[in-house]
Amino acid sequence: MDHFNYQNGELYAENLPLAEIAKEVGTPFYCYSTATLERHFNVFSKAFDGANALVCYAVKANSNLAVIKTLAKLGAGADVVSEGELRRALEAGIPANKIVFSGVGKKPHEMELALNAGILQFNVESEPEVRVLSEVATRLGKVAPIAFRVNPDVDAKTHAKISTGKAENKFGVPWQDVSRIYGEAATLPGIKIQGVDVHIGSQLTDLDPFNNAFMRVRELVDQLRKEGHEITQVDLGGGLGIPYDGTIPPAPENYGQVALQAMGNLGVQLIFEPGRLIVGNAGVLVSEVIYVKQGAERKFVILDAAMNDLIRPAMYDGYHHIDTIRQPNEADGTEMVDVVGPVCETGDTFAKGRELPPVSAGDLVAFRSAGAYGAVMASTYNTRPLVPEVLVNGDDFAVIRERPALEELLKQDKLPEWL
Length: 419
Ligand SMILES: *Cc1c(COP(=O)(O)O)cnc(C)c1O
Prior knowledge:
- By secondary structure, the chain is of the alpha/beta class.
- It has 2 domains: about 5-30 and about 280-410, Lyase, Ornithine Decarboxylase, Chain A, domain 1, CATH 2.40.37.10; about 35-280, TIM Barrel.
- Helices cover about 30% and strands about 25% of the residues.
- Strands 4, 14, 15, 16, 17, 18, 19, 20 and 21 form a 9-stranded mixed beta sheet that branches. The protein has an 8-stranded parallel beta barrel with strand order 5-6-7-8-9-11-12-13, surrounded by 5 helices. A 3-stranded antiparallel beta sheet has the order 1-2-3.
- A hairpin with an 8-residue loop joins strand 17 (about 335-340) and strand 18.
- Helix 5 (about 110-115) packs across helix 6 and helix 8 (about 205-225) runs parallel beside helix 9 (about 250-265).
- It is globular.
């Protein structure tokens, strides 16, 4: 459920026609809906009503300050994976004691910032990392609250590039070493073991892998407690999928039941790290048709958005539904086209053989479900400036990131003195 709907023959974001926003900010641009962000956060949180649960929004899915702040106002915590994201979360008003720090490659200066801020938990992914964290914490006279991210070796049955919980993946500590690693970490100065963390992948559309992973974690908590560790936090990660192509993933309510059943009465604080689920369907990418070109074998719709603006199709074979901004007439029918961008790569293809209502140059289209892993993954490839982001709230909208001038982009390059 989102708040991008046809009204009066054109696509709206909440109460505003996307075409009007396009007139003001130009295309391409990302547009997010406050009501949809709020709805998704609230539906997810409700799945854990009455339980001791903290929802830490995975900032990497969409790290715009205005998006984070919208969620912060609803009580969200944050899952961050870099110093930059930690700064964003703090700046957006998320209290440090609701922030968890994930990622396989944390550097000492990042640990230092997190320790000084007083975050809830470091999700540690290796033995070398916990040793460095121990050194940094000791030097600062602090104690780092940690969970190890464990690799449960379950198949998330999602795209290979977003699967993280198999033994072959780089994430987490190997299952067979968990007991020894907790034992050794317990002896390190400046380290306080408090939890267990797991995150098996993204865009999961089946509850079984979650159930398998959560049951393993449950057994692990019992075992670690027997071995003398105090476990007060269990972080079950993110990864619940969203509908991109008509496949309907499990409802948050059912996901919640699986999590709560597996964790039962462990008496811990449960932490969840949803990203895509919160922001994915709360955003669209609006783009203009530049040309319609008849190739030898197929028709190409060439847009002013490209793979540098939305890389999911090129990187993960990601599917995005494409709507015309003008509401199509049944009488118009559809035609089969390839939808491409202007970048000089064959990979700059958003959709192949897609049935779209007929479009012509100057028409606007919207990529649906583009709120997660869209703007955050954008680059300036082909010297294309990052596109602006807009947040709609009822009848209002605001530009929450401006389109940089090309001059700014060029100014970043420096000529050496010999040129
Ligand atoms: C990416 C990531 C998430 C969020 O995943 P979604 O599929 O967007 O919910 C949560 N936790 C960790 C550790 C991640 O790397």
